[in-house]
Amino acid sequence: xxxxxxxxxxxxxxxxxxxxxxxxxxxxxxxxxxxxxxxxxxxxxxxxxxxxxxxxxxxxxxxxxxxxxxxxxxxxxxxxxxxxxxxxxxxxxxxxxxxxxxxxxxxxxxxxxxxxxxxxxxxxxxxxxxxxxxxxxxxxxxxxxxxxxxxxxxxxxxxxxxxxxxxxxxxxxxxxxxxxxxxxxxxxxxxxxxxxxxxxxxxxxxxxxxxxxxxxxxxxxxxxxxxxxxxxxxxxxxxxxxxxxxxxxxxxxxxxxxxxxxxxxxxxxxxxxxxxxxxxxxxxxxxxxxxxxxxxxxxxxxxxxxxxxxxxxxxxxxxxxxxxxxxxxxxxxxxxxxxxxxxxxxxxxxxxxxxxxxxxxxxxxxxxxxxxxxxxxxxxxxxxxxxxxxxxxxxxxxxxxxxxxxxxxxxxxxxxxxxxxxxxxxxxxxxxxxxxxxxxxxxxxxxxxxxxxxxxxxxxxxxxxxxxxxxxxxxxxxxxxxxxxxxxxxxxxxxxxxxxxxxxxxxxxxxxxxxxxxxxxxxxxxxxxxxxxxxxxxxxxxxxxxxxxxxxxxxxxxxxxxxxxxxxxxxxxxxxxxxxxxxxxxxxxxxxxxxxxxxxxxxxxxxxxxxxxxxxxxxxxxxxxxxxxxxxxxxxxxxxxxxxxxxxxxxxxxxxxxxxxxxxxxxxxxxxxxxxxxxxxxxxxxxxxxxxxxxxxxxxxxxxxxxxxxxxxxxxxxxxxxxxxxxxxxxxxxxxxxxxxxxxxxxxxxxxxxxxxxxxxxxxxxxxxxxxxxxxxxxxxxxxxxxxxxxxxxxxxxxxxxx
Length: 803
Hints:
Blueprint: H1 13-60, E1 63-66, E2 69-72, H2 76-82, E3 90-95, E4 101-104, E5 121-127, E6 130-143, E7 146-157, H3 159-194, H4 196-206, H5 222-272, H6 276-308, E8 316-319, H7 320-332, E9 341-345, E10 355-358, H8 360-377, E11 383-390, E12 394-401, H9 431-441, E13 445-450, E14 456-463, H10 468-473, E15 485-491, H11 495-508, E16 512-518, H12 521-529, E17 539-542, H13 545-553, E18 573-574, E19 578-580, E20 584-591, H14 604-613, E21 622-625, H15 631-641, H16 646-656, E22 660-662, H17 665-673, E23 679-684, H18 685-692, E24 698-701, E25 707-710, E26 713-715, H19 723-734, H20 736-745, H21 760-767, E27 772-774, H22 787-800
Parallel strand pairs: 9-11, 15-16, 15-17, 21-22, 21-23, 25-27
Antiparallel strand pairs: 1-2, 3-4, 3-7, 5-6, 6-7, 8-10, 11-12, 12-14, 13-14, 17-26, 18-19, 19-26, 20-23, 20-24, 20-25
Helix pairs in contact: 1-2, 1-3, 5-6, 6-9, 7-8, 8-9, 11-20, 14-16, 16-22, 17-18
GO molecular function: phosphorelay sensor kinase activity
EC number: 2.7.13.3
Transmembrane segments: 17-40, 166-191
């Protein structure tokens, strides 16, 4: 086929594809996707906005005006409504528009044109580095100054809304994908119709004989005319390349045939010679020709090998200095090198700084050819110098000799195949051609010139591989051990209780040291709220769940994804930032000498009646937490108050019996063991059980109606210096190994219980599983941290205790 393509007209492939895709995709995908994204946002906002508005209304209803001014009794139900969203942080405030703040965060953002209205106002704004969705709801109340507006502002972060928007959008896209398939059908039809010329080209090429390199004939559309031209251009280049290959093969055959014919001629003349001297002369010439033939064959094989190995994907790190030394040692064993002065200068390059990305076999072949060329073309007492120098980015390898060199006019063709510039050297004309092929395969530079010794100077410049990067990435190479890491834990848990866990973690993480700092719950909370961050811990642990939730709600925690195997129950985790790892029921510790197991009340209601009926008997002999000083005591008391009105009645009864208050469980248990107390109420079960085990006169008692359960919680602060180590420690606490250590080696109780329980309290828990009421990690715990709510609760508590 020799005829070319004619004309440049024809239908437009681009127009067909654009029209079809515009109908099938631009209208369906772009327009519908944009509308779908907007609809998904509105759908995600709607239920959460209803929660915000409902919460605001429930708080508005609890605003009252008295002789001392307006106040608000924050309802627990308000925060529980917000807890239906298990992900987002919450903010609130109750205020007088344009006036004072009653409670909550006073610096929440608000629209500049906000006017009091009974209709909810919804908007989004940034606060504390996060995006929030706010609602402001107002109502009028009668005050001493007349009718006055009061407003409630509630805010939630938008993490769950964003996730739901993406989920709605992705789900809807499944239906959109079905419509897209219709569009793809149109595109397929258009492509099938438009690409018919290409199928014709494919059929033409498939039917051709291997030797047929004629042009492709056809009248292609304008859009693929360039492709036709490129195919024809490639066929032409392939033809030229085949011609070059055939020429090379012919040259090789000619060179080999000529050399073998010359050797055969010398041998034939030697056979016909009668004179021994003439025969010897002919044999010597045949031997020289045989040597030249062998060298030519070796050079041809070397040239083929170098071309075959020139693929850069096979290159790997190679150290040049030892490679050069090895090839020099090999060459010096050749008898031809006896009178040659061969030297190597490495410029003081240090180990690891002579690295390149290369092929050692090809480089050795190139260097061997350079030395052999210098020996062959130079005088018998030739001097050959090899030097290696390093710059910041390159390695320069030079081979210089004291031979005749190459004339400047011949330098350009010296690297061409079968080009021998000396008739007396028995050269094959392939030596420098092989060197050129090696440098091309390595992306290196090759230059020829006059050497400092007067002969030929050959310079090879390779790109340097900076070995120092490997030393940085692999510090073990340098022989310097990596410094140990320190994990700083601030905790409101007794050090002896956590020590077995710390030792096991340090044993697992050999290069980690744990620095454990013990706090009281309130002190730890205040330390985390302090502005200075010079001593920020990596993990924060506390039994005061409400204080921990408050710290996380303020945005102080780092999100941590635990594995499925270590994930705690849903009630013991919030926002993937706060994690519970123990099971701590509240318990009654009693003195068996003062009260029998049988007469202990079985419910909280009966406890109030029991104390009232035995008031003189137990006067001054009942203990409980001082909730003004103990975070866990305040948590237990507020959670009891949510279980019904009997809690206030119980406080009053205990107050009339001169209730004694303590800072911690250990003091309550010790006082009971000494006989000062008949029983202690709402002690931490794990600590109490550990002390009761060594006191024969003490017992543990659980109620049948409910028993509050708290969990010690841990989180990683955002400013943690060892956040990854902190995540590993929390994962360890919740792992099977960590929970087993908690059960067997600490006074604490594991969150996840396995197998038969051996301890007394473990068996009691197993027997009464239905009576335990876990305190959930939700924003509901923030209710009693509100300043007004806390003051009211503390006032009621102190009044009940007659303080």
